[in-house]
Design goal:
Elements: E1 6-9, H1 12-25, H2 31-43, E2 54-60, E3 63-70, E4 76-78, H3 83-95, E5 102-106, H4 107-121, E6 126-127, E7 132-137, E8 150-153, H5 159-172, E9 193-198, E10 204-210, E11 217-224, H6 234-248, E12 253-259, H7 263-272, E13 274-284
Parallel strand pairs: 4-5, 11-12
Antiparallel strand pairs: 1-2, 2-3, 3-4, 5-13, 6-13, 7-12, 7-13, 8-9, 9-10, 10-11
Helix pairs in contact: 1-2, 3-4
């Protein structure tokens, strides 16, 4: 395994031309590569801050074996890699003088890369605060009975409402992001379709979003219910509605991430028919 087996580019079209079929062959484990490549393609790299993006493709004997992406000044996101593949990437990036604040990938890949990065740079990896599990929908099983109320898809006229809910979600998960009319277009929240669950009197009680269809797959992201309204079935209802909408939109696969420290949400998604696909890890340097 040679470090120069990795082809690096700042051109997202080049990246997708080389790796698109590989990524779409297993869209679940590649959800982050597919999502961020499409965001860069659709909005332009300048939408996500200063510095050119970096995409990488591991090619051996004409076959794609792995990928990564990085949007400076952020961290690096990896497709599933063997320890040898992760080590070759760490060697290549270290030799090029890259400075990485963090790595994000499935647990085995992230751990292998973090260890290799420490060997090559001396940077000490520290596990991130949030541990995630990636789920993929099997057979959707809506809750019975559904809570009283109805779902409502939000449109452009609801933007202020959407920004408020997304801001509350970001605060709840500790995400350091400003969400307002001036920053909205540059956030990861701007390209989703949102659905509210409303009580019979029209009170909004839970929100779920879904990303666009990419590679035959839709990611459900985000799901949020204010703390004082939890335990009443609202999150289950709105997640079921968004999952149903994703299938109706043509998704062959529907995926979502859940915080492993929240057993309630993990159990909820499993009751709806979601099955564990991979544990996810983040290491800071």
């Amino acid at each position: 395994m040679r470090p120069d087996d990795w082809h690096l580019t700042d051109d997202v079209d080049d990246f997708l031309a080389r790796a698109g079929d590989f990524l779409r062959s297993r869209p679940g484990p590649h959800v982050m590569q597919l999502t961020w490549a499409e965001r860069v393609r659709a909005r332009g790299a300048e939408a996500f801050g200063t510095g050119a993006p970096v995409f990488g493709v591991l090619e051996q004997a004409g076959e794609v074996r792995g990928t990564f992406y990085r949007l400076p000044p952020g961290g690096i996101g990896l497709s599933p890699l063997t320890p040898a593949q992760a080590g070759s990437l760490a060697a290549r990036l270290a030799a090029l003088g890259h400075s990485l604040p963090r790595v994000s990938a499935d647990h085995g890949t992230a751990t292998a890369f973090a260890e290799a990065w420490q060997r090559h740079t001396g940077a000490t990896p520290k596990p991130g605060g949030i541990r995630l599990r990636l789920y993929r929908l099997g057979t959707l099983t809506p809750p019975e009975p559904m809570p009283a109320g109805r779902s409502r898809v939000l449109g452009e006229q609801d933007l202020e409402h959407v920004m408020f809910w997304c801001g509350e979600f970001a605060k709840a998960v500790g995400e350091d992001v400003a969400i307002d009319a001036g920053t909205w277009a540059g956030t990861r929240y701007a390209d989703k379709r949102y659905t509210l669950w409303e009580t019979p009197d029209g009170t909004a009680v839970s929100l779920a979003g879904m990303n666009p269809l990419i590679g035959g797959q839709i990611q459900v992201d985000i799901v949020y219910t204010p703390a004082h309204l939890r335990g009443r079935g609202y999150a289950a209802a709105v997640t079921a509605e968004v999952s149903r909408a994703a299938l109706a939109a043509g998704a062959r696969d529907v995926v979502l991430f859940a915080d492993l420290s929240n057993p309630t949400s993990n159990a909820l998604y499993q009751r709806l028919g979601y099955r564990a696909l991979a544990d996810w890890a983040v290491y800071g340097f």
